[in-house]
Each structure stands twice: as C-alpha cells, then as structure tokens.
Amino acid sequence: MKQRADNLRALSEQEFDVLIVGGGINGAVAAAALAARGAKVALVDKADFASSTSSQSSNLVWGGIKYLESFEVPLVYKLCQSRNLLTKMYPSTVKEIRFLTAVRKDFRWPAFLVFLGTVFYWVLGGFKTQRPRYLTRRKISVIEPALNVAEATAGFEYSDCYLHDNDARFVFNFIRSASKKGAIAANYVAAETYVRTDTGWQVGIRDELTGEASAIRAKVLINACGPYADAQNRESQITTDHRHLFSKGVHLIVDRVTPHQRILTFFASDGRPFFVIPMGTKTCVGTTDTQVTDPDVGVTAADRQFILDNVNAGLALAKPLDVSDIIAERCGVRPLAVTGGEDSDDWLQLSRKHAIDVDDKQAHISVFGGKLTDCLNVGDEIADVVESLGISLQTPETLWYGEPSAEVKARFVAQADAIDLDAMTGPGIEEKLTERLWRRYGASAFDLLEQISADPTQAEILIGNAEYVRCEIEYAARHEMITKFDDFMRRRSKISLVMSMSDIAATSGLMEACEMLFGDEAEAKLAEYFSEQGVTRNGERVA
Question: What's 301's DSSP letter?
Fold first, then answer.
C-alpha cells in the first residue's frame, strides 16, 4: 500500500493540469490519453478503480449489432471501427469469438432477415471478422447440442469480440499506463467539496480508509463518475445538456455448460438478447434490462429467476440450472446518456453512445454514457477538449494505448521458452503461463520472468484452483494499489467470479497471498473481505 500512500501525499502537494473524478473506463482512458500528452494528471475514485459499472459488464467488445434494429447505422459503423481498433491494438486481450444464435418461430422478424442483418453488420465492420453463416435447425443441433432448437426455425453464426480477462483488469491497465507516464492516481478517495477559483478548481478530498481530509488543486475538472455523474455535477454546481437514465443488468456465473468456445445467444422472454458466455472453466449467463432510478442496485430473487428461466428455456441441459448452481453474480447499471428534456418512455431503445459536455467558463468536462468498445475514442476526444480549455499538450511519441509490439512479445516468449516456463506450473492449467503473463502485464512481464528465472518457486500456483502464481501476487502488492483484498480477488483478477465463496474460504494459499499483499494487516484484511461478502471465514452465508 506504499504506492497509494505516496500518491495521496502527492495529490495535496502538487498543482495539476487536470483532476479526474472517477476511475472507471472513461476516467481511466482520459488519464492515460492526457498523461501520454504530457499533462499533469490526478485521478481519484471514492471506491476501487473500476468498482462500479466498469466491473459489471458482460466482457463483450462488440459493435452494437442490436442497434441496427433501431436503424442507428452510423453508430454501429463507429462502434465496429472501435472494436476493430481494440482487436488490433490488444491482440492478446481482445479476441474474436463466434456468436451462435437460434431464432424462435414466434420472433418478430424471420430468421433469414435477421441473418441478413448480420451480413450487413459484417460489411459495416469492414470484413475484419469471419463471415456470418446461415444455419438450419439441424445444423445447429450438430455443432452445438447445448442450444435448444425445439421452437426454432433456423439460426446463424457471426463474429464479434470479447475480453479474455475481466473488464476491471482491462480498465486498471489504463490506470497503470497513466501512472507510468506520471499521473497520480488513488483509490478510496472521495471528492467532497468543489470550489471554483480564479486559477482553477480546489477539490476537497477525504481518504475513505482513514478519514483524513486534504485538497487537490487543478486547472480543469473532469467528471468521469459514470452513473454518479449527475450527482457529482449537482455537488459542483455544474449544469449540463445531458443526464443519465439507468438500466440494471445482472449476470450469473455457473459451471461451464458447453465445452465449445463460442457465445450462445437467443432472445429472452421479453424479446431482448440473452447471452451464454464462456468464462474460462465457467459460463456467464444473462442479462436483465430493468429501468431503475438509483445507480446503487443489487440482485433480486426476481432477477435470478428471470435469468434461470430463460437459460433453462434456451438451452437443452440434462439438468435445469437452479439457484444452487450460481457461483457468483454481477450486477450494475448501464448509464444511458439522454438530453435534459428527452422523453424516457423509449429507454429500452437507447444506445450506449457517449456524450461529452463542456463548460468552458468553469473549465469543467462531464462524460456521459459510453461503453468499453468505444473507450479509445473517448480518451482522444477528452484530450482534444482539455487542450481547447488552454492546457498545453504535447504530441505523444507513441500511441497512448495498445500492448507492446509483436517483436517485443516474441522476445518475451523466447525468454520464457529458454527457462521452460510453461512446464513449471504443473498439469491441469488450461492456459499457458507465458500467454497469461504477457496478456496481463505486457512489458512488465519481463520483470516477472526474471523473478521466476532466479527462483522457480515464483511460478508455483499460490491460490489453489485460481491459476495465480506467487510472483503475480508480489507484483500486485508493489504496483497495483491493492487496498482491500476484494480489489485483488474481484477486480485485478477474476478469482471471486469463478470460485464460490465456500471454495475460496477453503482454498490453500489464501492467507499467504493476503500476507504478501498486506503484511501485518493480513488477518484484518481477510476478515474484512469475508465480512463484506456476507460470509463467515468458513464460507457459510451469514443469516
């Protein structure tokens, strides 16, 4: 936690060009884009980075095919180009995957017409993915027996993309990139007061862990609070053209329902798209789409039942899924950007497009809506706006986004092969350690390789059944601002998404990992973690 403590001191001692409030995907890319251009950037979040909407997605990076039904062709084209750029710049992380869809007889459009929509979608995407194909009901049964085709007329297969790791990890990598370029970021820091001065903003902050108060001075203030953006603007007395509506989305994680690495889709009982998404040895199913007025939401019994009913109807399972099969849950709101007076009756048709409102006089920027697919555009757009507000920015020597080049990766793979890295973790590991370290850490993976070369025990799995090795825990302790154990278990990794709480409680190496992260505070941090999850140290649910 030394890195966070150092950053907290720096936040109050320096004057910044830009203060970003909110460490979700919009705040993270803004920080990375601005820091790469030489701006002095501060970023704070009242919880952990990516702790809200940005850690509750379906992990899909898609061009918005569903928006074709509402004829938003320019938006779909833009999102497809954004998706293509992400796959090009993050080839180890953003992967193409096939979507297999069955269309019921009573669906609002004929199956072949929907298939033609996927062809048009492929064209809008510049033919960068595999071509779609039309499938008869018999063909679907052959290639994917898990999909229920009893009420289907036909179906189709097309391509989009997904994140190999979890969404929160992807977001944090932008925070890490910004930090390497000089940005000062701190989690669990609440921005509480906003004063506009002649030279900029003075924002009163409070450390959520200690209660200690201080202030940050910055010339420009960026509201990247996601679903809390409207509340933050009220606090800072900023009026904007846009506001948010909220759609609650819930996903459930269950044991793997099919061995095939493809996403199964069908249309839920309410006519909305429903997804069955591979997640390593598990499967993510959902989602709900419920309008809410408060961004602080939770999973209800009705949400669970809706998802279970639809997955059982859409799949041909030997045994229907029930509540006892749920390993983990994801729940968050989609912040949908609308203009101030826009009617909300058609909120189900609203897209996830982003909007950036600027108050030139107050040097204030508000970011509304958006989705992970379009994040690089958001970063560039915010940098342009900041420059228009009088902050001098440099032209970056290299792109501010993307993983290291193929040549650098080839050098890493060669060094990993030289020490026979993939043979060190033993049997039962689905993914090679070489690939996983490169995808998660990029050029920093060379440092991990040096540790393993000097001490092969650093390649041993520390947390049983989680495929996390010792050197990764040490790296996280030094560089990833782990403040609570949940930061590591849920957002820097996806361990708590693919393991039940009872299995986590029983796993070997948990306390040792906690000691590596927190030292003498390990016992208290572990107790805090189980308490916040609502379970005992034995993994039993607290009544």
Answer: H
Structure confidence at residue 384 (pLDDT): 97
Q: Are the C-beta atoms of 290 and 246 separated by less than 8 Å?
A: no
What distances in angstroms separate CA 48 from CA 22, 129, 355, one per listed residue? 10, 35, 24
Nearest C-alpha neighbor of 143 from the set 155, 160, 129, 152: 155
With vertex at residue 514, the alpha carbon angle to CA 511 and CA 518, rounded to the nearest 5 degrees, is: 140
8 Å CB contact between 165 and 440: yes
Q: How far is CA 338 from CA 54, 241, 381, in A?
A: 20, 9, 19
Local structure of residue 58 (DSSP, 8 states): -
The Cα–Cα gap between 100 and 254 comes to: 19
The residues, ordered by sequence, that sit 6+ positions from 427 with a Cβ below 8 Å of its Cβ are: none
pLDDT, residue 471, reads: 93
Q: Residue 467: left (phi > 0), alpha (psi -120 to 50), or beta?
A: left
d(CA 323, CA 284): 14
Please name which of 82, 23, 29 lies closest in space to residue 52, comparing C-alpha atoms: 23
- pLDDT recorded at residue 353: 87
Q: At 163, which amino acid appears? A: L
- With H, G, I as helix, E, B as strand and everything else as coil, classify residue 294: coil
The 3-state DSSP class for residue 398 equals coil
Residue found by looking up tokens 């060669």 in the block: 414
Point out the residues of the chain with pLDDT beneath 70.
341-349, 425-430, 539, 542-543
Residue 421 has which token pair?
């890295």
| CA separation for the pair 57, 161 (Å, rounded) | 14
Q: 374 in the Ramachandran plot: left (φ > 0), alpha (ψ -120 to 50) or beta?
A: alpha
Strands (E), 187-327: 189-196, 201-207, 213-223, 242-255, 263-267, 273-279, 282-286, 290-292
Q: Which two tokens stand for residue 144?
A: 């994917």
Q: According to the model, what pLDDT value does residue 543 have?
A: 55
Report pLDDT for 424.
Answer: 82
Whose CA is closest to 29, among 519, 348, 401, 389?
A: 401
At 60 the pLDDT is 93
Residue 75 three-state SS: helix
Quickly tell me which residue has 């749920």 as its tokens: 326
| Integer angstrom CA distances of residue 473 from 433, 459, 478, 514, 515 | 14, 11, 9, 9, 10
Number of H helices, E strands in the chain: 18, 20
Buried b (16+ CB within 10 A) or exposed e, 35-68: bbbbbbbbbbbbbbbbbbbbbbbbbbbbbbbbbb
* Beta bridge mates, 100: 157, 264
CB atoms inside a 10 Å sphere around CB 385: 19
- Name the E strands within 45-142: 60-61, 94-104, 133-136
CA distance 125 to 272: 23
